[in-house]
Specification:
heterodimer; A: about 120 residues; mainly beta; four-stranded antiparallel β-sheet; about 50% strand; B: about 110 residues
Chain lengths: ~120, ~110
């Protein structure tokens, strides 16, 4: 069974640009969550999607957005990039939606974003 | 105060030793607590989760939650060099996980 696939794995952008990251969950998983990982702040929750609807949102500015498609694939977008957005962005999928979940998430290997 | 606090390490132990990892949390409202392992340049993978208080054992790994003292612990018996990784503790509110900063563990042959 294929794991969570994230693309691209590495990318470099400049301040002010925008970026779109893609995530394909494990087959059959309908919940997709996004996390940001930095050395200073650690692993932080961005948002969760289930059945194409955002179910939960972390404490990030509106420049961070996402969506989920009918096939459960998800994208996240960061607009007007800042230097502090440099991070590893991790996507995680789960069989259950948030209300029935014990927090068992399957993470991808991440997209490493560098903002210059 | 962060919701979940964890010593960043690194924690260096000889092969075969017991690795003991601890976290503290501040919010008692949550029921599920978990440990994830993250190898360098990889995504985290779930090791174990426990519901409420008590112990859970899986092979060489034992997880404990003490709700009275708000402590989460992970013990790794007979540690191997392949256990060298960063270990993240966390608590779950559905699929929204709040993690500690992670403890880097080095198991030396």
């Amino acid at each position: 069974k294929a794991g969570v696939t994230q693309t691209p794995r590495y990318l470099i952008k400049t301040r002010g640009q925008q970026v779109t990251l893609s995530c394909s969950p494990i087959s059959g998983h309908r919940s997709v969550s996004w996390y940001q990982q930095t050395p200073g702040q650690g692993l932080q929750f961005l948002f969760e999607y289930f059945s194409e609807t955002q179910r939960n949102k972390g404490n990030f500015p509106g420049r961070f957005s996402g969506r989920q498609f009918s096939n459960s694939r998800s994208e996240m977008n960061v607009s007007t990039l800042e230097l502090g957005d440099s991070a590893l962005y991790l996507c995680a999928s789960s069989l259950r939606g948030t209300s029935g979940s014990s927090g068992e998430l399957f993470f991808g290997e991440g997209s490493r974003l560098t903002v210059l | 105060q962060k919701e979940v606090e964890q010593d960043p390490g690194p924690l260096s132990v000889p092969e075969g030793a017991i690795v003991s990892l601890n976290c503290t949390y501040s919010n008692s409202a949550f029921q599920y607590f978990m440990w994830y392992r993250q190898y360098s340049r990889k995504g985290p993978e779930l090791l174990m989760y426990t519901y409420s208080s008590g112990n859970k054992e899986d092979g060489r790994f034992t997880a404990q939650v003490d709700k009275s003292s708000k402590y989460i612990s992970l013990f790794i018996r007979d540690s191997q060099p392949s256990d060298s990784a960063t270990y993240l503790c966390g608590r779950a509110a559905g699929n929204k996980l709040t993690f500690g900063g992670g403890t880097r563990v080095l198991v030396k042959p």
